[in-house]
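Give me structure tokens for this 298-residue protein.
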Amino acid sequence: MDRFDELAAFVAVAESGGFARAAARLRSSPPPVTRAIAALENRLGVRLFNRSTRSVHLTEAGLRLLERARSLLADLDQAEKEAAGEASTPTGMLTVTASVTMGRSLLPAVMGRFLAAHPRVSGRVLLLDRIVDLVAEGIDVALRVGQLPDSGLIARHVGEVQRILVASPGYLAWRGTPLAPAELKLHAIVAFTGLMPDRQWAFGVGPAADRVALQPRLEINDGLAAICAAVAGDGITIALRHMVAEDIRSLRLQPVLEAFWPAPVPVQLVYPESRLVAPKVRAFIDHATPRLRAALQG
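Here you go.
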């Protein structure tokens, strides 16, 4: 068994959690898988798994090896496809992740048009309000907001997003238009919890940003529902600018306290760095970038 076979056995055991399940995944039997892991551990001089009668768990050395092994196997697979003349054709399952709010407002249309243009690709969208490890969780592309930390990810800038305050004309005619952030305390606030943590409206930039503590009349954990409540006249709400651009144009909503809106923050498509980027990933990045830029501009 060569080194790539050993790595394939190692990844299969790590991901399936057992030698028998790994053997079934590899269409083999447990003894060859066990021998492959033993050979790999002997050559490296470290133990990769802690074994018990019921479970198999990666050691620290195994955890360090797993990401690199996945990357090497993916590169090998891509190289073989390239040699077979398949590298230029997007194929396979494309998994894209984003936060719930950003993904719900931007990804369905983009993904739908991409799949229509590439019939050999299937798509999966994961809307998660947490930062995921793309390599560890097998995700191809992420839509992320804000400055990115140093990482092994490649980023494509697609625009900016801004948190703003809006209310319906009817509400403002009834309660008046606030002229300073402190006056928000006198108004009915519809708080979208995803953008107003700790019941605070932050304006300014960075750690020195000023904050106004509020007592919302209504709290909602979904951005679109909060916007609907504002359109209905229930109060002032916080929203991402691109999500209410049409409501503002059609006069269903009016901007509030524009002079105090925080600065826009960047939005990027990110994907793991690799010597051979999968055609489906390259094609999606090229397809999504202009469409996301247009959508974020409102």
